[in-house]
Design brief:
Elements (H helix, E strand, L loop, with lengths): L2 H25 L2 E6 L7 H13 L9 E6 L7 H10 L4 E4 L2 H10 L5 E5 L19 E5 L6 H11 L5 E6 L6 H15 L2 E6 L3 H14 L3 E4 L3 H5 L1 H10 L4 E3 L2 H5 L4 E5 L1 H16 L10 E2 L3 E6 H6 L6 H6 L2 E3 L1
Parallel strand pairs: 1-2, 1-3, 3-4, 4-5, 5-11, 6-7, 6-8, 8-9, 9-10, 12-13
Antiparallel strand pairs: 10-12
Length: about 325
Amino acid sequence: MKRRAFITLIGGAAAAWPLAARVQQAAMPVVGFLDPRSPDGMTERLRGFRQGLKDTGYVEGENVAIEYRWAEGQFDRLPALAADLVRRQVAVIAALSNMVALEVKATTTTIPIVFIATEDPVKLGFVASLARPGGNLTGINIFTTELVAKRLELLRELVPGAVRVAVLVNPTYPDSELMVRDVAAAARAMGLQIQVLNASTSREINAAFASLVRERPDALFVGGEPFLNSRRVQLVHLASRHAVPATYALRDYAEVGGLMSYGPNIADAFRQVGIYTGRILKGAKPADLPVVQASKFELVINVETARMLGLEIPPTLLARADEVIE
């Protein structure tokens, strides 16, 4: 080979390498991740999501990129965040709550969406049926609203003398009205009275507890939703300070000193979202992926908090606990 031809060949190959690298990088699928909370305290859930992706052959930074969007508890930011992900033409959007799924669904009818729903997704209008979703959405139902009665039963078992129960909700959260209705129905069946307290800011949480102190209910039922979860340290501190037995929807509360939680294993739900996201990246259609029904639920009891409140935990309740925090 002549020297000039050899140099031309090498030069052409060298010029092609950056182009090949750019093409490979451009070919890496991008997943949109939209959550109404802040990233604080989300380590286990993100680990679950990434594990689900890994289970289907995808590793962040290696063969898939993830665009994270956090509403930081400001729900009015969700439409803009959803529109941004759609504008970027991501391959799949993981919608990590009812309200997120509703916003993304209203923004695109073509990009696949994998949701976490807290109640029947057929009733919410996400899918045509659980077995055959039929559109561009599928995901997992974690039954948060359906577990309301069970949480109230467990609270009554832990505080058998309870008659009046305060219910703390965030009135700006779309599902709060439904949750209050379910709590009221369960309370009537158990012969309990409820008092609804509203709080959508940190200051309003303090005001709600001031009202609670004046009214002196026997126990507190904290609604399961993103804003209240983001203020769990404040809530647990106030409940302990005012010696109010409280039940929560997620183990996050019990881990920071909350008395008792009962709800779905959220990290496992995020893993399932990761699995479905990976399967869609491989070519599966949301319309053909049945909605998964959560099957892992956790009862977590903080014995130290119970002791501080002067509560004796029934042995039968301790035996049923998935985790006991000493």
